[in-house]
């Protein structure tokens, strides 16, 4: 049995039909599916260990605490952070970015300061900065898109980064175009002008470890549900010195050192930023997802050894970054999809020649992406349509929305063929 057939057996959800057709799930960019080991780990935790964390001396509470902190350690390892206390659990990437914007930005930004974003950001990395800019009098500046290459126009970076820049917040991988950003460049230039660097890692971590220490960013935000883990949990990585500068947004139980009648003092990291009872079972599921990805990595390497090793080692570190074996399979499927989609004359495909990962957008001429998405659903093919929470990027691309296919470890070349076939059917129905 092939590697991908074995992987697919771990995802019972894929065994169903939609509208009488086998499900082809091409929406992992929105949320990945969960393999059996993740669901089982959460069930096992609920059935055998559950209690609240960090508070009890009894056995169940201690076990729950051990599970929760072991999960933090697994996330630390996947993100490549130095210390476990540099991983703060949140509800997801959105909360993590709000935590930086409100918890750090509100304390440190002043009128005249500038926040540099790119036009490729998800709303989760735009709106929190708009809010803090309105609160503090800081200004937003955007790295624009080069209309021809459809990658960020880095020639504008030098004009945008000045001594007034206090924050550079960019996505690692675009959730619309799949573009991998030259993070080291952004981070290094941010540091040179005295700004902090904040990275939205939501679309990178399903494919690879983050290596935050070598990226050298100050903050990095992720969600578990984008990387085969459960919904409801994510994390903010931050360098210790910057996390310590964050004012907790939530206050209450579990995050204090001492509480008096009139005031309270905060606990150490990471507890000070995790008020209230956390999503413990979700943390356990996330750790199981990371274990699962590591197991896949090993099995992929074992089966594709020589060729994969050679390709892996040849790949230059920068600007085309190293991805782990987890990404290799999805990359192959994606490359095939780009080739096949680009050959269809009735589509506009938004695939630049720059390194990209996991996600591809396209539009059928004169057809609204929603209509296309609905017809593909009737063919059993699940894609995403609309603005993908990236309206400024849609404006730069001069489109209202796009159809987006995104790929995970369970997708196959045959599924790309099904997508292409379904697009022909849609064309027939919509354009004749
Ligand atoms: C690039 C990017 N950033 C942030 C988010 C928000 O993630 P969440 O909804 O898990 O907070 C997403 C989700 O689609 C994303 O793709």
Under the CATH scheme, the architecture of the largest domain is 3-Layer(aba) Sandwich
Radius of gyration: 22 Å
Strand order of the largest sheet: 4-10-9-8-7-5-6
Distance between the ends = 41 Å
Write a structural description.
By secondary structure, this protein is α/β, with parallel strands linked by helices. The protein has 2 domains: 3-35 and 320-431, Alpha-Beta Complex (Aspartate Aminotransferase, domain 1), CATH 3.90.1150.10; 41-290, Type I PLP-dependent aspartate aminotransferase-like (Major domain) (Aspartate Aminotransferase, domain 2). The chain contains 15 helices and 17 strands. A 7-stranded mixed beta sheet has the order 4-10-9-8-7-5-6, with helices on both faces. α2 (36-48) packs antiparallel against α10 (280-303) and α12 runs parallel beside α15. Residues 315-321 have low confidence and may be disordered. Bound molecules: pyridoxal-5'-phosphate. The site of pyridoxal-5'-phosphate has 13 residues, from α4.
Short overview:
The protein contains 15 helices and 17 strands.
Jot down its keywords.
432 residues; alpha/beta; Aspartate Aminotransferase, domain 1; Aspartate Aminotransferase, domain 2; 2 domains; 7-stranded mixed beta sheet; 4-stranded antiparallel beta sheet; 15 helices; 16% strand; globular; binds pyridoxal-5'-phosphate
């Amino acid at each position: 049995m092939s590697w991908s057939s074995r992987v697919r057996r771990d995802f019972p959800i894929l065994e169903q039909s939609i509208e009488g057709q086998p499900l082809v799930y091409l929406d992992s960019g929105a949320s990945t599916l969960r393999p059996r080991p993740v669901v089982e780990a959460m069930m096992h935790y609920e059935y055998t260990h559950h209690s609240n964390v960090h508070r009890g001396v009894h056995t169940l509470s201690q076990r729950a605490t051990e599970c929760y902190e072991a999960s933090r350690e697994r996330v630390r390892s996947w993100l490549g952070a130095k210390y476990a206390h540099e991983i703060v659990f949140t509800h997801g990437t959105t909360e993590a970015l709000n935590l930086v914007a409100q918890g750090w930005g509100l304390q440190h930004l002043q009128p005249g300061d500038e926040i540099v974003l790119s036009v490729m950001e998800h709303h989760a990395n735009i709106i929190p900065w708009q809010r803090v800019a309105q609160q503090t009098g800081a200004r937003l500046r955007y790295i624009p898109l080069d209309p021809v290459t459809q990658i960020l126009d880095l020639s504008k970076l030098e004009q945008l980064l000045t001594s007034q820049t206090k924050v550079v917040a960019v996505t690692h991988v675009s959730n619309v175009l799949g573009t991998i950003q030259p993070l080291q460049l952004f981070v290094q230039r941010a540091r040179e002008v005295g700004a902090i660097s904040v990275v939205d890692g939501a679309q990178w971590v399903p494919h690879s470890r983050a290596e935050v220490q070598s990226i050298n960013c100050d903050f990095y935000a992720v969600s578990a549900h984008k990387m085969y883990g459960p919904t409801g949990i994510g994390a903010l990585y931050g360098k210790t010195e910057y996390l310590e500068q964050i004012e907790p947004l939530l206050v209450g139980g579990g995050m204090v050192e001492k509480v008096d009648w009139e005031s309270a003092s905060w606990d150490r990291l990471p507890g000070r930023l995790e008020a209230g009872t956390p999503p413990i079972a979700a943390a356990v599921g996330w750790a199981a997802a990371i274990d699962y990805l590591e197991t896949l990595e090993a099995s992929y390497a074992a089966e594709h050894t020589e060729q994969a090793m050679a390709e892996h080692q040849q790949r230059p570190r920068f600007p085309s970054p190293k991805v782990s074996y987890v990404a290799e399979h999805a990359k192959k499927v994606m490359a095939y999809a780009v080739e096949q989609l680009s050959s269809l004359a009735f589509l506009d495909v938004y695939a630049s020649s720059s390194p990209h990962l996991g996600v591809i957008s396209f539009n059928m001429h004169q057809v609204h992406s929603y209509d296309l998405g609905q017809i593909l659903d009737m063919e059993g093919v699940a894609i995403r349509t609309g603005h993908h929470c990236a309206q400024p990027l849609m404006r730069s691309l001069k489109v209202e929305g796009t159809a987006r296919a995104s790929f995970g470890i369970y997708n196959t070349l045959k599924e790309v063929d099904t997508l292409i076939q379904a697009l022909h059917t849609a064309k027939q129905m919509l354009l004749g």
